[in-house]
Amino acid sequence: MCRRALFLKMKNKKLRMALFVHIIIVILEMMVVNYMFAVNGMELFKYYTDNSNLLCLITSAIFVIFMLPAVSKGRTSGFVSTYMMQHYKGSVTIPEWLTIIRYVTTCCLGLTCIVVLLVLGPKDGYVHQLLSGMHPLDHLGVPLASTLSFLFLENERPLPKNAPYVSLGLTIIYAIVIILLNAMGIVDGPYFFLRIREQSLLLTFIWTVVLLGGDFLLSVVVMKVYNSLVKVRKGNRK
Question: Are 48 and 112 in contact (CB under 8 A)?
């Protein structure tokens, strides 16, 4: 019984830490999105990085809204609404649907970071890709914070085996839309490997396979690491 009580105490502490991280992420992402909109206007939606960070802002805000009353139930001090705490009927557990969208968000941000490090950085320079504008946050800082929180603070339950396909599906939708817009001349790029009117069909196919394959591989790795940490966590509970 004492061991279970200790486990629940540690679980609540981890969720509080995750909540704190997501509050920070929301603040950082508001800065990032505001900057991106000021620079790109509505064209921010053509950038995978901007879409990923906007998704992260929404997801982290949802996490805060749903988990704030959950982890603060029974406490009437601080900035938490007393009404929300006293009337919250849910359990102190991250909902499954929230775990899925957090997983997808983490994978999207991870793909952004990897493409910057392996593709855009060598071409455009790491100083520009990692240090200019808001890039320290949207290319590196936020993806890292999101990944660490998801893996080590939010490991409530194992992800389903089809989770990587959900993450890949979102990237495929982006790829189809942006490639079609490039083909019609409505959008230019925004990345060199998407300028299909300036490169051969074969090169476009190769880039598509490499990036989508990399996205799927990343999604599988994130799922396996997450599920292994969930298994360790459950083992410590016994």
Answer: yes
Domain that holds residue 215: 2-237
Sign of CA dihedral 87, 233, 228, 54: positive
> What tens digit of pLDDT does each residue of 161-191 get?
999 999 999 999 999 999 999 999 999 989 9
How many angstroms from the chain centroid is the CA of residue 189? 23
* Domains: count for the chain: 1
> Are the C-beta atoms of 57 and 26 separated by less than 8 Å?
yes
Do 146 and 105 form a contact (C-beta atoms < 8 A)?
yes
CA distance 51 to 212: 17
Is 27 within 8 Å of 56 (Cβ atoms)? no
Cβ count near 173 (within 10 Å) = 10
Which distant-in-sequence residues (6+ apart) come within 8 Å of 14 by Cβ?
A: 152, 153
Give me the residue label for tokens 């504008």: 133
Report d(CA 71, CA 73) in Å as an integer. 6
Half-sphere exposure of 163 (CA within 13 A, CB side): 28
- SS3 state of residue 132: coil
- The verdict on pTM exceeding 0.70 is yes
3-state SS string for 62-111 = HHHHHHHHHHCCCCCCCCCCHHHHHHCCCCCCCCHHHHHHHHHHHHHHHH
Instruction: Express each pLDDT in 17-63 by its tens digit.
Output: 999 999 999 999 999 999 999 998 999 899 999 999 999 999 999 99
The total of other beta-carbon atoms located within 10 Å of residue 94's CB is 20
